[in-house]
Amino acid sequence: MRLTDSEFRAMNSAPRRFLQRRVEFPLFQRMGLAPRDLDIIEIGCGSGYGAELISRCGPRSYVGVDLMPEQIALAQKRLIPGAEFMARDATDLSCFGDSTRDLAVIFGILHHIPTWRAVITECHRVLRPGGRLFLEEPGNRVMALAHRLSPEAHPKEAHFDLSQLESHLAAVGFAIESTRRAFGFGFYCARKPVTLAKAS
Description:
A seven-stranded mixed sheet has the order 3-2-1-4-5-7-6, sandwiched between helices. The mean pLDDT is 92. Helix 5 packs parallel to helix 7 (162-172). The protein contains seven helices and seven strands, in the order ααβαβαββαβααββ. The chain has one domain: Rossmann fold (3-Layer(aba) Sandwich). The protein is of the alpha/beta class and 200 residues long. It has helices at 5-11, 14-30, 49-55, 69-76, 116-126, 140-149, 162-172; strands at 39-43, 61-66, 83-87, 101-107, 127-138, 175-182, 185-191.
């Protein structure tokens, strides 16, 4: 769903950029995020600040997807060399072929998407065997506080706890390699297993 005006301002604020630069991205890196020479897709890329952080690491390609054209316009203004941005619903990534990306990154956007499970399923499809998904999402306490402060910003259908997230990652075929907890959020590195060919 689209962000409310207050959420839009919060997601494009200096404190949000600070957290992404000093907490979220470094934590992903400690968990194994290494974009160099890889094909990256970011879900919910927003104004493109995450793209800047990722692009400094030298990926082979980067595509950022966001539902809001307003966010894509802001991302394009950053003029990040080699980065591509698309206004698109992340539950339908049919413009990407199967097994065409090495890494998928989600900086805490699934709790805005009523059909969040479809996003994870699509990430699994577009990742190559051995590809990894890095994602963070708020736990129950953070979501309860956010809902009290701004109930219209988070659709009821998108409310899930981290155990449900973990269950769906496993259900679609991801193997969770590592998890971290920080500031009430869960951080995950999940890999799409390499399927070994059957001996003839």
